[in-house]
């Protein structure tokens, strides 16, 4: 099982980036994928989650209305489209796979890192002011 995150880079405030998370060794149709980020000196925080079917998505309040996650089963890849980026979005972004198949989540429980057991290597997003 591997997750390969890519697409990070340097962008000006108000700009956009699209991150990709390419999965191998398993089929996305069975597992939810989440995006986390970690800024220097801060704890890892959940950014978004997409269900195995792609029908349900969840977002942190800080990114609602600006970020959108989606999946392409044909390419076994999950995306995180980030618009209206702010300097406070600067962080290393990770994608992670749920431990369980077809897990249902409630409230903000989806953002608990312990729910995920496979993590990508991270991609750095830097937003300049």
What does this structure look like?
This protein has 129 residues and is mainly beta. Helix content is 0%, strand content 52%. The strands form two sheets. Strands 2, 4, 5, 6, 9, 10 and 11 form a seven-stranded mixed beta sheet that branches. A four-stranded antiparallel beta sheet has the order 1-3-8-7, with no helix packed on it. A hairpin with a 6-residue loop joins strand 4 and strand 5. The chain is globular and about 40 Å long. The mean pLDDT is 96.
Summarize the SSE layout with pairings.
Layout lengths: L1 E5 L2 E4 L4 E8 L6 E8 L6 E6 L6 E3 L7 E6 L4 E6 L8 E11 L14 E4 L3 E6 L1
Parallel strand pairs: 2-11
Antiparallel strand pairs: 1-3, 3-8, 4-5, 4-9, 5-6, 7-8, 9-10, 9-11
**Structural shape:** globular
H-E order: EEEEEEEEEEE
Number of strands: 11
Low-confidence stretches: none
How helical, in percent, are the residues? under 10%
How much beta, percentage-wise?
A: over 45%
Mind telling me the C-alpha Rg?
A: 13 Å
Mean pLDDT: 96
Determine the N-to-C terminus distance.
37 Å
- Structural class computed from helices and strand pairing: mainly beta
Q: What characterizes the major β-sheet?
A: 7 strands, mixed
Count of alpha and pi helical runs? 0
């Amino acid at each position: 099982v591997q997750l390969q995150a890519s697409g990070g880079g340097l962008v000006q405030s108000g700009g956009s980036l699209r991150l990709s998370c390419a999965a191998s060794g398993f089929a996305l149709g069975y597992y939810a994928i989440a995006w986390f980020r970690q800024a220097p000196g801060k704890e890892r925080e959940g950014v978004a989650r997409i269900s195995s079917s792609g029908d349900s998505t969840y977002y942190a309040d800080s990114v609602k209305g600006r970020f959108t996650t989606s999946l392409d089963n044909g390419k076994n890849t999950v995306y995180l489209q980030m618009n209206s980026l702010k300097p406070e979005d600067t962080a290393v972004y990770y994608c992670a796979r749920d431990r369980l198949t077809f897990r249902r989540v409630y409230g903000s429980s989806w953002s608990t890192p312990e729910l995920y057991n496979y993590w990508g290597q991270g991609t750095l997003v830097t937003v300049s002011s």
